[in-house]
Amino acid sequence: MIRVETPTRAIDAGLKYNFELFERGVTDAVGIAEEELKQRWRSQVRRAGLGNRLANSIRGAAYPTSTVSANAKALVWTRAPKLIAAHEQGALIRARRRRYLAIPTDAAGTGRGGGRITPAAWEQRSGIELRPIKLRRGGVLLVADDVRINSRGAATQKRGRRRRDGILTGAQSAVIFILIPQAKLPKRLNLQDDARAVAAALPSLIAAYTGAR
Predict the structure, then answer these.
(1) What InterPro entries does the database record attribute to this sequence (predicted)?
(2) Omega of the bond leading into 119 within 30 degrees of 0 (cis)
(3) Tens digits of residue pLDDT in 98-109
(4) Which end of the chain is less packed: N or C, by CB atoms within 10 Å?
């Protein structure tokens, strides 16, 4: 009598090896999809002119982090969800605890660290008192008199002697701030389209990395 036995250990080892390859392929594919979506979102923010700082608020991570899994997952998020949502949805911004929003013009220059400057900070820095001009449609212009525009396009105090009639030679008036009750942000982002595109491509990516085609 001849006894035939199935080499179960060899089969089990082979199945385990193939499953580990499958797990690694899934994990790699999910990690690549996470990086692709993160870079797409960052690129979209930069193309919208919203700057590197907001673009770099987009972060991503794939899980598990220290091993492989057939159930690998990825998450892409932003550290500035309110700002991203405002530019994705086109939010209406109203002044808080104030009557107007102060929108600086190029002549206002920038504040400390390159940030946006306020009317009070501009007056303190320049030593010039801003003159309000009411508009018929409800807004207000804050104008600086007796200034000059420097090479960077910002208004600075004009130095020099005045003529007998009181006019400062070479001086001009410039609009420094525009005051408005509210502002509608244009819709600049469409992150969901990128998310759907990457999700739709994930099955093919998994198949390519696991050899399941």
Answers:
(1) DUF6441
(2) no
(3) 788 999 999 998
(4) N
Q: Which two tokens stand for residue 201?
A: 């491509």
Q: What is the pLDDT of residues 37-54, one digit of tens each?
A: 999 999 999 999 999 999
11 Cα distance to chain centroid: 52
Q: Where are the alpha helices (DSSP H) in 1-150?
A: 8-47, 51-55, 81-89, 119-126
Q: Is 123 within a domain?
A: yes
Identify whether 64 is preceded by a cis peptide bond (ω within 30 of 0).
yes
Please give the residue range of the domain that contains residue 111: 92-184
Do 171 and 133 share a structural domain? yes
The token duo for 88 is 């994705």
For residue 204, the surrounding DSSP H or E stretch is helix 191-210
Cα gap 66→63, rounded to integer Å: 8
Q: Quick one: 174 and 99 in the same domain?
A: yes
| Cβ proximity of 130 and 177 under 8 Å | yes
- 77 found inside a domain: yes
Q: Answer yes or no: do 104 and 170 share one domain.
A: yes
- The residue type found at 39 is Q
